[in-house]
Amino acid sequence: MRQIPPALSFEELTLRNFSPHTFASVTHYLYQTTISLIDEFMAMLDHWTFERRSHSYRVARLSLAIGEQMGLSHRERFVLGVGSLLHDIGKMRIPREILVKPGKLTEDEWAVMRKHPGLGSDILNRFPALAFAREIVLQHQERWDGNGYPQGLKGEQIVLGARIFAVADSFDAMTNQRSYNKVQDPKEAVSEIEGRSGILYDPRVVRHFCALGNPADWEHRLREGEETLLHEIFPLEGFVGLFADPETMEEVPAF
Ligand SMILES: [Fe+2]
Fold it and tell me: Which of 51, 119, 124, 195 has CA atoms 20 to 30 A from the CA of 88?
């Protein structure tokens, strides 16, 4: 009679079959899969919202510049970059007629719209290689004074990554044409953000944002090199770093 081999656990199976060479191949395979997944998510989101991913790309670059100015670690910047890039991913689950509706939304439509951070965090939670960025996605519409959504978090209850993102996103919204706004001069936008420091934005983040200097000197850099941005934000070393400590892998903090 043919013997059925006992079932192996995932760990036993990988230990038995993984040479260092296959381990490197599998890591690379996962890395490429994750990069392509982010890229495809961005394309699907553009298609669904009729927007261009350049907005998310610019915001991710500015978030990273502020993060660097604040002296964040390599890992913290990595989480910040991915979270900023995917912040609106939950809009893929919002009906299109609400997303692209011309004119004002009704109260009911707003209630649906305000679900997008939670929906985005649910999506990321399904992908272990992206789940570390879910807090930033969940909290990206929160505001320092507690008047944001979905949870109405206040001050330092909001993760630092989401507080940095809020400044970067506002600057981008003010200085680029969206359907509803008038385009502001970048210098004006910086002073407007300064004026709302401690109200909408974390004062410490605003201080570091202002320390970037005159936006005329750095603003053009936000638009450069879209092709390489994904690898910059999501470097192979950062990805491998996520696996460096299996004890903490379950909960990579969103700092
Ligand atoms: Fe959003």
Answer: 195
CA distance 99 to 76: 31
pLDDT, one tens digit per residue, over 76-103 is 888 999 999 999 999 999 999 999 898 8
Give the chain's largest Cα–Cα span. Answer: 81
134 Cβ contact list (under 8 Å, min separation 6): 83, 120, 121, 124, 125, 254
Whether the bond into 5 is cis, omega within 30 of 0: no
**Any idea which fold 38-235 has?**
Hypothetical protein af1432 (1.10.3210)
The residue ranges of the chain whose pLDDT is under 70 are 1-3, 5, 178-181, 243-255
Could you tell me the distance, in angstroms and rounded to a whole number, from the CA of residue 151 to the centre of ligand 1?
A: 14
How many angstroms is it from 210 CA to the middle of ligand 1? 23
209 contacts 66 by C-beta, under 8 angstroms: yes
Give the residue among 50, 83, 41, 21 at the shortest CA–CA distance from 238.
83
Gap from CA of 95 to ligand 1 centroid (Å): 15
pLDDT value at residue 68 = 95
Per-residue pLDDT, 134? 95
Distance 66 CA to ligand 1 centre (A): 19
Distance 244 CA to ligand 1 centre (A): 32
Instruction: List, as ranges, residues with CB under 5 A of the ion ligand 1.
Output: 88
The 8-class DSSP code of residue 178 comes to -
What's the 19 CA to ligand 1 centre distance in angstroms?
Answer: 43
Beta-carbon contacts of residue 93 (< 8 Å; ≥ 6 apart):
115, 116, 119, 123
